[in-house]
Design brief:
With 68 residues, the chain is mostly helical. It has helices at residues 16-26, 28-49.
Length: 68
């Protein structure tokens, strides 16, 4: 038909991949910021669980948590 564009599909007829691609295209900056914050949160949790000493006694050859 004249004036029929195959690329202009209505939003209801788009596949899930096309919808997600369009969403990421509009929100790329927020995806990057969210990924960075998630990475920071993971490193923070790792630091909390492996903090100073980690609940283990200090070896005799090492001075742990020494403050003058």
């Amino acid at each position: 038909m004249t004036g029929d564009h195959h690329d202009a599909v209505s939003p209801a007829r788009r596949t899930r991949r096309e919808k997600m691609t369009a969403w990421y295209g509009r929100n790329a900056l927020w995806v990057v910021i969210g990924g960075f914050l998630l990475l920071v949160a993971v490193f923070y949790l790792i630091a909390l669980t492996n903090g100073p000493g980690g609940g283990k006694p200090c070896p005799a050859a090492k001075v742990c948590n020494f403050v003058r």
